[in-house]
Amino acid sequence: MSRPVAAPPGLQVVWTRAELAAVRAGWSGSVAVVMTMGALHDGHAALLRAAAHRADHVIVTVFVNPLQFGPTEDFDRYPRTIDDDLEICRQAGVGAVFAPSRAEIYPDGEPMVRLDPGPLGGILEGASRPGFFHGVLTVVLKLLQITRPDLAFFGEKDYQQLTLVRRMVRDLDLPVEIVGVPTVREPDGLARSSRNRYLSAPQRQVALGLSAALRAGAAHASGGGAFDEVLSAARLAFDRAAGGDAELDYLVLTDPQLGPPVAGAGRLLIAARVGGTRLIDNMPVELTGSRAEGP
């Protein structure tokens, strides 16, 4: 992580575990952490505001984790905007930003021991990006150990990640509360994402197919549509909005824990590639109709 030109006044920026521990030792009261890979946007700002509302102190981590990028993915291209990130943190009242180097997090190189996400980590994003959640959960666990928060805030846009982190905390008895924050969207419905900046103007229009699919599926579910009808409505809306210029990876309907859907609360999740950019999105749905056979 390259260092900023200058840290904004009133914001503590630390680069090592020892520096963070010294800052942390001077605080009293509750502490929240928001873990990011930088390139902060309004979605991250919503996380920061939610964390500041619940906790006395907020730590933001800025670390582009190499473990969660595959060999053909965009690690080197991933945007690094530390100066802008720090200003967003300052405006949100963040207490400290921890921006470690790769060597600080992985001093012995890539870790030999990684967290196994289990069966839930092998579906959806895990199926499309093998090993992805091994890397995600490993770095999340490490950062929880380093920051020692009372609360950790994650966006619902990365819904499978949020679900797995909650499962990890429960299964491993970690002393932290995981808080999900609803997805922040552009006025036209596109979910905020650091990868949106890769999209050209025409590609951005195509990308609206993801949110269009989710809205159509949610509307059909609340209107009494059965499982297969909800998915059909969502797929039709995606095809119409994307116009054949996006490659659909998956479009699924699950229960809130990513299991088979049943009557009541559910989750509609989608992933698609627009040009060279892979985007994900999801939306809660309420299944009021009878359930058809699932996948």
Folded structure, characterized:
The protein has 295 residues and is α/β, with parallel strands linked by helices. It has 2 domains: 12-181, Rossmann fold (3-Layer(aba) Sandwich); 194-287, 2-Layer Sandwich (Pantoate--beta-alanine Ligase, Chain: A,domain 2). Helices cover 36% and strands 20% of the residues. The protein contains 9 helices and 9 strands. The strands form 2 sheets. Strands 1-4-3-2-5-6 form a 6-stranded parallel beta sheet, sandwiched between helices. Strands 7-8-9 form a 3-stranded antiparallel beta sheet, with helices on one face. β3, α3 (82-91) and β4 form a beta-alpha-beta unit. α6 (132-147) packs across α7 and α8 packs antiparallel against α9 (227-242). The longest helix has 22 residues, at 201-222. It is globular and about 55 Å long. The mean pLDDT is 93.
Range of helix content: 25-40%
Please report the number of helical segments: 9
By secondary-structure content and strand pairing, the structural class works out as: alpha/beta
The CATH first-level class of the largest domain comes to Alpha Beta
Total number of β-strand segments? 9
Query: In the CATH hierarchy, what is the superfamily of the largest domain?
Result: HUPs
Beta percentage is: 15-25%
Distance between the termini: 43 Å
What does the main sheet amount to? 6 strands, parallel
What are the secondary-structure elements, in order, as H or E?
Answer: EHEHEHEHHHEHEHHEEE
**Overall mean pLDDT:** 93
How is the secondary structure organized here?
Blueprint: E1 12-14, H1 17-25, E2 31-36, H2 42-54, E3 57-62, H3 82-91, E4 96-98, H4 102-105, H5 125-128, H6 132-147, E5 151-155, H7 159-171, E6 177-181, H8 201-222, H9 227-242, E7 246-254, E8 264-274, E9 277-287
Parallel strand pairs: 1-4, 2-3, 2-5, 3-4, 5-6
Antiparallel strand pairs: 7-8, 8-9
Helix pairs in contact: 6-7, 8-9
